[in-house]
Amino acid sequence: MNTITIDDKQLAVNAMIHNMKEIDPDGSHAGLISPIEALSYVRAHHVDVAFLDIEMPDMNGLEMAEALKKIQPDINIVFVTGHAEYALDAHSVFASGYLVKPADVSDVEKVLRNLRHPVQGVSRLQVRCFGNFEVFIQNRPVIFKRSKCKEIFAYLIDSRGASVTMGELVSILWEDGGNLSSRNSQLRTFISDLRKSLNDIGFEDILIREYNSLAVKTDMLDCDFYRFLEHDEKALTEFMGEYMRQYSWAEVRIPELIEIKEAGA
Q1: Among 206, 243, 214, which residue's Cα sits nearest to residue 226?
Q2: For the chain, what is the radius of gyration of the CA atoms?
Q3: Please, are residues 25 and 17 in contact by the beta-carbon 8 Å criterion?
Q4: SS3 sequence, the chain?
Q5: Least confident span in 42-51, 186-195, 199-208, 234-243
Q6: Are 142 and 253 in contact (CB under 8 A)?
Q7: What is the Cα–Cα distance from 26 to 211, expressed in whole angstroms?
Q8: Cα(124)–Cα(127) distance, integer angstroms
Q9: pLDDT digits (tens, 9 = 90+) for 64-123
């Protein structure tokens, strides 16, 4: 991904470049404090996303956005400012996003996943289903507050984007049954905790919550199970007969996976 940050304060430029290098270490992330130099840069380089401060002395961010779009019509404009009252004005130039300073990595990732013109290089959650079920963000393990929260997420991933009812989740999490009213109350708590864990890493919108059901957005995942189903050669090699090993309900998936692997051999 190619980005440029334009802000009259060098510290703000450095902070956004730091965020982008953490999100997309292989991308090109420029930063300039001069609007004139920035326009020259965009004329000479393809840019996917421009992070613009709004209040700049020579040319404000709204004017800069209009000038950038004349050079590259598909450039994504993301305003980064300490002035929340400019949010409405940002829509007038069809901005892709709006960030309030100080923006951290998770804030930036949320914006990048919802760009007006999607680009490659936006991070996805890394999910490992073969062996034990584990979740990573930028190769760091995601910490879930409770084991049941992690199990709910595992079951949603196993369901491949299909909606799962609250009753189905109760039966999966508590095989011994128990008081239904109490279980439903616990389930709501677990889902709330799951959403918070995902929110902390900038992925709260990965869950699709509807009345009495829950699903996951599969396009926000880099998952070995999903790649296996697409007959990805690496994923086929990685499957050694174990799938979400810590969950007994996942065992029913193994014969299907073995059959797929043998068919592709």
Answers
A1: 243
A2: 22
A3: no
A4: CEEEEECCCHHHHHHHHHHHHHHCCCCEEEEECCHHHHHHHHHHCCCCEEEECCCCCCCCHHHHHHHHHHHCCCCEEEEEECCHHHHHHHHCCCCCEEEECCCCHHHHHHHHCCCCCCCCCCCCEEEECECCCEEEECCEECCCCCHHHHHHHHHHHHCCCCCEEHHHHHHHHCCCCCCHHHHHHHHHHHHHHHHHHHHHCCCHHHEEEECCEEEECHHHEEEHHHHHHCCCHHHHHHCCCCECCCCHHHHHHHHHHHHHHHHHC
A5: 199-208
A6: no
A7: 41
A8: 9
A9: 999 999 999 889 999 988 766 555 454 555 678 888 888 888 889 888 888 888 776 666
CB-based contacts of 228-235 (< 8 A; 24+ apart in sequence): 228/130, 228/257, 228/260, 228/261, 229/160, 229/260, 231/260, 231/264, 235/130
In order of their start, the domains of the chain are 2-112 (3.40.50.2300), 125-264 (1.10.10.10)
C-beta atoms surrounding 115 within 10 Å: 17
Least confident of 102-106, 157-161, 247-251: 102-106
Distance CA 14, CA 133 (A): 37
Q: In Å, how far from its chain's centre is CA 89? A: 26
Structure tokens at 83: 């002035």
User: Which two tokens mark 204?
Assistant: 């709260």
Tokens coding 229: 């189903």
Whether the pLDDT of residue 243 is over 90: the answer is yes
Q: Which two tokens stand for residue 21?
A: 């290098």
